[in-house]
Amino acid sequence: MTTEEQIRRQDSVRYALASTRIEGLPITPDTEALLDAWARGEISDDELFGRALSDVVG
Predict the structure, then answer these.
(1) Where do the H-state alpha helices sit in the chain?
(2) Dihedral sign, CA of 29, 53, 10, 26?
(3) Residue segments in the chain with a per-residue pLDDT below the cut of 50
C-alpha cells in the first residue's frame, strides 16, 4: 500500500467515525479496531466489509 493510500484510508476512517458520532450512534472498540486495521492495510476491503457485516448480522 502506498503512503498516499494509507493517508486516504486514515482520513476516511476519521470521517466515518466523526459522522457516526455526530449522528449519535455508538461505535464499539471492536469496530474502531477493525477500521484501524483496514486503514493500516492489515486487512482488505472485502475482509473489512465481511467482518463488519457479520458483526451486524451475527
Answers:
(1) 3-22, 29-39, 45-57
(2) negative
(3) none
